[in-house]
Amino acid sequence: MGIVERMRLDGKKGFVTGAARGIGKATATAFAEAGADIAIVDLDIEEAKKTAAEIAEKTGRRVIAIKADVTKEEDVQAMVDQVVAELGGLNFCHANAGICINAPAEEMTYAQWLKVINVNLNSVFLTDTIAGKYMLANGGGSIINTASMSAHIVNVPQPQCAYNASKAGVIQLTKSLAVEWAKKGVRVNCISPGYIGTELISNAPDLVPLIEKWNAMAPLGRLGKPEELQSICVYLAGDTSSFTTGSDIIVDGAFTCF
Ligand code: NAD
After folding, report:
1. 131-180: pLDDT as tens digits
2. Would you tell me the crossing angle of helices 22-33 and 45-59 to the nearest 10 degrees?
3. Is 176 a catalytic residue?
4. CA–CA separation, 21 vs 145, rounded Å?
5. Ligand 1 contact, 46 CB (< 6 A)
C-alpha cells in the first residue's frame, strides 16, 4: 500500500472540540474526508449540528454533533461516553477549543485570566485524560492538541499574556502525557498555528485592524487558512505518525523564525 493509502483513517473514530467552525471544522472535515467517523463537539450546538450535516453530506461518513463545555469535567466525560457509544469506539481526538482575551496585564482581571486558562489549558487536561483513559484501556490512540505560535513568541502589538501562558502550558502538558503514555500505545502531539483567518480574529473588533500589521511582519505576508492545518492533523491522527509523539508542530508560515 502506498503512503497516501496508509495515511487514510478508514475505520477510525474520533472527535474534535471547538469544531463547529474555524480550525476545528477544517480538521474534522479532513478526518472525515480521510475515512473516519467524527463527532463535532462544541458549546454552540446549533452551529455544530449544521457543521456535522455539512461534513456528512460532503464525505458520506457518520458525523454526529455533541454539545459540551470542555471546561466541565462532567460534560467531557459524557461527551467521550457518547462518542464511544454512538460511533463504536475512539481512536483519535483533537482538543482544539480555545478563546483569546486581550487586555494589558495590569488591567486584566483575575476572572479574565482564569477564563482563558480554563478554556485553553484546563480543558485540554480534561479532554486528554478522559479520552486517554479510554484509549489506554482500549488498544491505544492518538491525541492532538491545539497550542499556538503564541506559546513560542509574545505576539505584538496586542497584549494577551493569559493566552500566551495557556498555550505554553498546552505544549508542556502534551510532552508530559506523551512521555507517560509512550509505552502504553497513546501518542500525544500538538500543533502551533500562526495567525489563521477564522472568527476568533474576525469576531474580535480589536484584532481586525491589526491584520495588516501582522501581515507586514509575516514572511508569507498573509494569514494562514484553516485548510492549511488539515494535512498535518490527518498525519498525526493516523498510523503513519507512529514514531511521532511529544511533538509540537509549528505551522506559521515562518512567522516565529525571526
Ligand atoms: P474560533 O473562535 O473560530 O472557534 C472556536 C470554537 O470553539 C467555537 O466554535 C466555540 O464555540 C468553541 N468553544 C469555545 N469555548 C468552548 C468551550 N468552553 N467548550 C466547547 N467549545 C468551545 O477559533 P479558531 O481560530 O478556530 O481556534 C481554534 C483553536 O486554535 C483555539 O484553541 C485557538 O486558540 C487556536 N489558535 C487559533 C489561531 C488563529 O489565529 N485563529 C492561531 C493559533 C491557535
Report:
1. 999 999 999 999 999 999 999 999 999 999 999 999 999 999 999 999 99
2. 30
3. no
4. 16
5. no
Quick check: pTM over 0.90?
Answer: yes
Q: Is 163 a catalytic residue?
A: yes
* Residue 139: half-sphere exposure toward Cβ, Cα within 13 Å: 7
Compute the distance between CA of residue 6 and CA of residue 203 in angstroms, rounded to an integer: 38
The cell for 76 is 467531557
Cβ(152) to ligand 1 under 6 A? no
Tell me if 17 CB under 6 Å of ligand 1.
yes
DSSP letter (8 states) at residue 224: B
Ligand 1 within 6 A of 119 CB? yes
What is the chain's mean pLDDT, rounded?
Answer: 98
Question: Cα–Cα distance between 119 and 141 in angstroms, integer?
Answer: 23
Catalytic residue among 167, 192, 241, 247: 167
pLDDT per position as a tens digit, 48-78: 999 999 999 999 999 999 999 999 999 999 9
What Rg do the C-alpha atoms of the chain give, in angstroms? 17
Active-site annotation holds for 148: yes
- Which residue's CA is the closest to the ligand 1 atom numbered 34? 98
